[in-house]
Design brief:
The protein is built from six helices and six strands. It is an alpha/beta fold. The protein is globular and about 40 Å long.
């Protein structure tokens, strides 16, 4: 079975700040972690994995349909930048589910965010759309997030039989991503 994973990355203004050793900013640290995982996953021929990518800030955009081509993943990662104000994670989930619409196999969205949800479709509502499309949400939050955002994250992962993690350091981010991918791919 092919494992299709879309990385949904927060590119809002708050991601340009550093957090502990997530430097020079959170987005660069996330990009480095996703690149590390992509290399591991796509070089391992015994595990059929395809990676896609989407971003969100006040809006959400697809960047990459699921592929095994590391060059395409690297190109998408190299284009990541802070996109603007606001944070619409629900819109990002909808875009990610649409990316996964026509693929076969397992479907997971790994969102990495620092919270501050204030725009777009509510995350818990978007999770219903994901569930109805057989997509599981896995959410990694960076640092301390507002209780209201933590509640939405927990509701979203519960709805889709997903899981959430909170990280504070680069080592934790790399470790959690590695653990998630190993659980998805068996």
């Amino acid at each position: 079975m092919v494992h299709n994973i879309v990385f949904l990355l927060d590119t809002s203004l708050s991601m340009r700040k550093s957090h502990n050793d997530l430097t020079p900013n959170k987005l660069v640290a996330v990009r480095d972690a996703v690149d590390y995982i992509a290399v591991k996953m796509l070089k391992e021929k015994s595990k059929p994995v395809k990676l896609g990518m989407a971003v969100f800030f006040g809006k959400a955009y697809p960047l990459l349909c699921p592929t095994r081509d590391y060059g395409l993943v690297l190109d998408a990662l190299s284009r990541l930048r802070i996109m603007g104000e606001g944070s619409a994670p629900g819109d990002g989930v909808v875009v990610s589910v649409k990316i996964l619409r026509r693929v076969y196999g397992s479907k997971d969205v790994i969102m990495i965010t620092d919270g501050g949800f204030n725009m777009g479709i509510p995350l818990d509502v978007a999770a219903i759309y994901a569930k109805n499309s057989s997509v599981r949400l896995i959410i990694i939050s960076i640092g301390k997030i507002k209780d209201s955002d933590a509640f939405l994250i927990e509701e979203a992962v519960k709805t889709t039989n997903g899981v959430s993690y909170s990280v504070d350091t680069k080592a934790e981010l790399f470790s959690k991503l590695k653990k998630i991918v190993e659980e998805i791919t068996g």
